[in-house]
Design brief:
alpha+beta; Jelly Rolls; five-stranded antiparallel beta sheet
Length: 363
């Protein structure tokens, strides 16, 4: 499954697709109901904006609106236009012809910085099939996390430890029982960990965890817990479906140690370009860890969101010029930029659309 991938372009094949220059993206933080935000400001090196304690998500290169809104969460490019509209004007230039044939003019990707200033509520996301059938959406919401900052005792909660009967889950949700959180696996995390969260899997990110999140391009969540949060769960937590239907999207099966281990990405490798997530993520998105270590990491043409985690360097593109890079920067890289090289001593995450051969055809 996934795009067959763009054909690499060499120096003798000049791109005439239009926009090619990398675009530096500023903060884009729609208000959310849970606390967080200061770690995003610190990471970006910008002052705390008003209401920063409830701006826990930075939607980077977003062509996705907050659920129930027309434009909240959409990225505006320098000049004021929405990224979604700019891509629509010339989708081949931004996304590449291979992706365009497979997925149309949607990037099929949403990238976030997420600062959990408190434990998030237990929730899950619908699958593609459920979203298509019940929500008129082409996409559900599989997501994955890259932990970029976490205290020594940080945890996330993922999947039930035992099979949960349908009536038991419904009772927990109705009563807002603490038994629901207790029934989830408590998974310690540390900086550098990468975890895939398939659609349907109940989960909650623990307080103090700061992540880069890749996900499918929707804002579809079914809240299983809300009592401690300023939200009306019975009215807002079920995507307008009612809980009798919405709870059908929840994975109630047991997740033992082996199943949980399969969600974790490979251990960090000493190479300029390495895959971050397990291969099961490839039909939804791909992330690469770029560490040139003073040399050059060579990258093939692709629409990408770059998140610079540390250090400094330079992005040189075949057709789009150069961009200096430093910690906290987020950069949109169009397909039309062509082959690229990242030099310097830095670490960045290259966030890519559904796999077009990126895992095996690097450079």
């Amino acid at each position: 499954m996934g795009d067959a991938g763009p054909t690499p372009l060499g120096p003798s094949q000049p791109v005439s697709l239009g926009p090619a220059a990398p675009v530096l993206l500023g903060p884009n933080q729609p208000p959310r109901f849970y606390r967080g935000g200061p770690k995003i400001a610190a990471f970006r090196g910008v002052p705390l904006p008003p209401g920063a304690d409830h701006l826990p998500e930075d939607w980077v290169g977003s062509s996705t609106a907050v659920f129930g809104t027309q434009a909240d969460g959409l990225t505006r490019l320098p000049g004021g236009r929405f990224l979604r509209d700019v891509i629509g004007d010339d989708p081949a230039a931004y996304l590449g012809p291979g992706h365009l044939r497979q997925h149309g003019a949607s990037p099929a990707l949403l990238v976030k910085l997420l600062d959990a200033g408190e434990r998030l509520p237990v929730h899950c996301h619908p699958s593609d099939a459920f979203a298509h059938t019940h929500l008129a959406s082409a996409y559900g919401k599989t997501e994955a996390w890259i932990i970029i900052d976490a205290a020594p005792d940080s945890v996330v909660h993922i999947g039930f430890t035992e099979d949960v009967p349908e009536q038991t889950l419904a009772g927990w949700v109705d009563a807002q029982s603490p038994a629901m959180l207790a029934a989830l696996n408590r998974v310690p995390v540390q900086t550098g960990d990468a975890i895939l969260i398939p659609a349907g899997l109940p989960h909650a990110i623990g307080a103090g965890v700061f992540i880069v999140e890749l996900q499918q391009p929707t804002d579809l969540s079914v809240l299983l817990e809300w009592a401690q949060f300023p939200i009306d769960g019975p009215a807002e937590g079920h995507l307008g479906l009612g809980y009798d239907l919405a709870l059908n999207c929840v994975d109630r099966s047991a997740w033992d140690t082996a199943r949980l281990a399969a969600l974790h990405g490979p251990r960090a490798q000493d190479a300029p370009v390495t895959s971050v997530f397990p291969a099961a993520a490839d039909p939804f998105f791909v992330a690469q860890r770029i560490r040139p270590d003073g040399g050059t990491a060579e990258l093939g043409p692709a629409y990408a969101i770059l998140i610079v985690l540390s250090g400094e360097g330079v992005l040189r593109t075949e057709h789009g010029g150069e961009q200096n890079l430093s910690r906290g920067m987020t950069v949109l890289l169009p397909f039309a930029a062509g082959h690229c090289g990242v030099t310097g001593r830095l670490e960045l995450i290259r966030c890519l659309m559904p796999d077009g051969g990126h895992r095996t055809a690097v450079g």
